[in-house]
Amino acid sequence: MTVVRTRFAPSPTGYLHLGGARTALYSWAYARHFGGTFVLRIEDTDVERSTPEAVQAIIEGMQWLGLAHDEGPFYQMQRMERYREVLAQMLDAGSAYHCYSSKEEVDAMRERFSAAGDKPRYDGTWRPEPGKTLPPVPADREPVVRFKNPLDGDVTWNDVVKGPITIANKELDDLVIARPGGVPTYNFCVAVDDWDMQITHVLRGDDHVNNTPRQINILRAIGAPLPEYGHLPMILDHEGKKLSKRTSAVSVMDYPAKGILPEAMLNYLARLGWSHGDDEIFSMAQFCAWFNTDHLTSSAAQFDLEKLAWLNNHYIKQADNTRLAALARPLMEAQGARFDGAPDLAAALALMKDRTNTVNELADAAMLFYRTPQPDAALMTQHLTDAVKPALAQFAERCATVEWTREALAAMIKEVLAAHTIKMPVLAMPLRLLLTGQLQTPAIDAVLVLLGRELVLSRLKAAV
Ligand SMILES: Nc1ncnc2c1ncn2[C@@H]1O[C@H](COP(=O)(O)OP(=O)(O)OP(=O)(O)O)[C@@H](O)[C@H]1O
């Protein structure tokens, strides 16, 4: 049985966006499912656009998601010697050749083909063939290296997402695999890397479909085994355009700042292009156990913030309160929250978290317990009526001695209501205002328990 080896091979020309993250997730999960190896390879040969900051951003994004690579990161720029070695072998073997046509000449050839209604391409001037005499090598011109693409036949592969794909070789040019000076080009580097890194399964976006027949031909020419290929449909933005770091996509690392938990993002991305029956919510352990290429969707998926928020709500409810407190605390400090003598933050978040979609919303909601209540004067006049004041006074008095549990407090409130023949809201509304400054709070007995006897008594004393 083959040992599965997958890779994620981003170009470090910007942050990791959701499209890239899903590619990484599927490649990672596929390796995990089969007990294989997940390789990270940084395709940094676009020297103008690649930056070390982008490499860092990609690695950070993957770390946040917990997509640990088993090997790498390998940097293509550090593998130049190896590419030169393979180029030399190909030139020796005759599967590649030096081409001395100038850029102007190549442009003119392409124009000629276009004018004749053909696909613009290189005309093969320097392509060696048995019995063919090549033109004299021009002085002072550095050649490029071209791949000697087969002239006839087709390239066919059985794409694990899209099914069988066939491209005629005559559609494929003699690709430049090294620029003047010997700098290797993209498809060639990828083929050599996939060979050297013994990649068995290439899962990537379908923006790469056109590269695949070229890479397959190069792999064949160098005697390398072919990996399986799966081309995932693009993730589109809300306008239906491909998410791209050049335009609309947001960085994966914007989501922690928006209060999204990584497990929600992973679950969301897992479902964006793959399904397992009706299952919407599952752990990564479960996903890795389920994930293979059987249920990948072949149509494009649109990014849906609402669904992500829905999943995030689920994972916030599941999350450990201490972990949530660590995430919420700095957000609350930035809003001036005071934690001295205030209720335990984890306990406060536990009360609020059912109804919030993001950690940020949760932090905002919990602020109510961490600032001095400043109830609106009009609301106070409306709710702190003369009729309710005696009930409030009795309530405050009983607070001094009642057992400080939710049950005991609820029972005590009932007694006070009965004694004054008033209904719950009549007492609860002014209480909420006095204790928190707001009318909207969790259940009043829960609020009391959270605030604690001392704080409750001090806040009531001023008013009653
Ligand atoms: N919108 C998208 N939806 C799904 N997959 C994508 C999307 N954009 C890129 N990918 C895939 O993510 C992986 C990493 O790609 P890479 O880092 O090279 O991004 P890219 O294609 O350069 O993105 P961009 O177009 O934003 O510059 C590749 O497999 C690519 O096919």
Relevant terms:
nucleotide-binding, binds adenosine-5'-triphosphate, 4 domains, alpha/beta, 464 residues, 3-stranded antiparallel β-sheet, cytoplasm, 19 helices
Structural overview:
The model has no long low-confidence stretch (mean pLDDT 95). This protein is 45% helix and 11% strand. It folds into 4 domains: 200 residues, HUPs (Rossmann fold, 3-Layer(aba) Sandwich), CATH 3.40.50.620; 98 residues, Glutamyl-tRNA Synthetase, domain 3, CATH 3.90.800.10; 51 residues; 87 residues, Arc Repressor Mutant, subunit A, CATH 1.10.10. It is α/β, with parallel strands linked by helices. The radius of gyration is 32 Å and the shape is elongated. Helix 5 packs across helix 6, helix 12 crosses helix 13 and helix 15 packs antiparallel against helix 16. Adenosine-5'-triphosphate binds next to helix 1 and strand 9. Catalyzes the attachment of glutamate to tRNA(Glu) in a two-step reaction: glutamate is first activated by ATP to form Glu-AMP and then transferred to the acceptor end of tRNA(Glu).
